[in-house]
Design a protein that fits this description.
One of its GO terms (molecular function) is metalloexopeptidase activity. It comes from Heyndrickxia oleronia. InterPro entries: Creatin/AminoP/Spt16_N, Creatinase/aminopeptidase-like, Creatinase_N, Pept_M24, Pept_M24_MAP, Peptidase_M24B, Peptidase_M24B_aminopep-P_CS. Keywords: Hydrolase, Manganese, Metal-binding. Its cofactor is Mn(2+). The protein has 365 residues and is α+β, with helices and mostly antiparallel strands. It has 10 helices and 19 strands. Helix 9 runs antiparallel to helix 10. It starts with a helix and ends with a strand. The structure holds manganese (II) ion (2 copies). The site of one manganese (II) ion has 4 residues, from loops.
Length: 365
């Protein structure tokens, strides 16, 4: 049996929960190796303490699900079947009285919840998220390799974007070039909408790229990532076009120092909040504290945002095998926006930085 499923079954036993029904595409992939977006159709994995698990999916996906190596039953539902009837029948055939069922409460929408309570009368629903987050928190060698590969494509994407910078090009022109080159290399999916922001737009941490043209003296910020065999990367680099002024340089070098110092401090045994505070203190001492409005970083894996959350209040102890981003930023409206982001894998005494694109302040001519 696959180790991940085994751990989930053990948890059901320990907590005396009769069943789990897992439906988020990320956790279905984590548990089965089957990665698929079912849109409005039903996709899920039913797991029990002892009885054999099963995967339920649209009939059109049955062959693909089997091809991933899932060793148990795959149950297909056609577009005219009621998938909830099928689910109920198959769950109850394995465990007659389901008193408790673990669900991803943050994921199951009200309409689906109503389907479940109508069919599993009196069943108590328990949150499954925390357990799944804990399982996904520590990455194995294979996962690390995939994350490294995803990071290499992110480096390539930034390189492509930087080499496209020219007077008069728009943010969307550059994005189109980046994604075109990635697709030619076999990357079909970005881990989130690619961001290329220039000038004043870069001063918004989550700006919307558009038809703004790049001008000399602007900073150009790239924030992007790819999905490689189900695993995500996330990188941010900021470069100057043609020239920069003194304040832009000061902002840039403050962010760079904060980023490097936080990375240097990352190792097993420190707390997540220590890392955020190291970066935040550097930025605050330089006078930009109020312009760093977000956490230092976030976990990365199957999801582009997962555990751990690297905030200045999280007391979580960093452990070997965690993967997260380190991404301080300073955003001064009408002056400059700079963020530098790398993906790190925690080793036994430090980190391996997965993203490698250079981060000294570069002038693109
Ligand atoms: Mn990012
Ligand atoms: Mn990020």
């Amino acid at each position: 049996m696959n180790q991940r499923l085994h751990e989930l079954m053990n948890w059901l036993k320990q907590e005396n929960i009769d069943s789990a029904f897992i439906t988020s595409t990320e956790n279905v992939f984590y548990l089965s190796g089957f990665r698929s977006d079912p849109h409005e159709r039903l996709l899920g994995i039913a797991v029990f303490q002892e009885a054999e698990p099963f995967l339920i999916c649209p009939s059109l996906d049955v062959n693909d699900a089997k091809a991933t190596g899932w060793e148990y039953e795959v149950i297909g539902c056609s577009d005219t079947d009621n998938p909830w009837d099928t689910l109920e029948k198959n769950m109850k055939s394995r465990v007659t009285n389901i008193h408790t069922m673990a669900l991803e409460k943050e994921h199951v929408i009200v309409e689906r919840y109503e389907q479940l309570i109508n069919r599993f009368e009196g069943t108590k629903f328990i949150a499954a998220e925390e357990k799944l987050r804990q399982l996904r928190l520590i990455k194995n060698e294979k996962e690390k390799e995939l994350l490294k590969k995803a990071a290499e494509f992110a480096d390539f994407a930034v390189q492509t974007g930087v080499s496209e910078i020219k007077e008069g090009k728009t943010e969307l022109d550059i994005i189109a070039a980046i994604e075109y080159e990635l697709k030619k290399k076999g990357i079909s999916e970005m881990s989130f909408s690619t961001m290329v922001l220039t000038g004043a737009n870069a001063a918004s941490p989550h700006g919307n790229p558009g038809l703004t043209k790049i001008k000399k003296g602007d900073f150009v910020l790239f924030d992007l990532g790819v999905v490689y065999e189900g695993y995500c990367s996330d990188i941010t680099r900021t470069v100057a076009y043609d020239h920069f002024n003194e304040e832009q340089e000061k902002i840039y070098n403050t962010v760079l120092k904060a980023e490097i110092e936080a990375i240097n401090a990352t190792k097993p045994g420190v707390q997540a909040k220590d890392l955020d505070n190291i970066a935040r203190n550097i930025i605050t001492e330089a006078g930009y504290g109020q312009y760093f409005p977000h956490r230092l970083g976030h976990g990365l894996g199957i999801g582009v945002h997962e555990y751990p959350s690297v905030t200045n209040t999280n007391e979580l102890i960093i452990q070997e095998g965690m993967v997260f981003t380190i991404e301080p930023g300073i955003y001064v409206p009408n002056v400059a926006g700079v963020r530098i982001e790398d993906d790190v894998f925690v080793t036994k005494d430090g980190v391996e930085i997965l993203t490698a694109f250079p981060k000294e302040l570069q002038i693109i001519k």
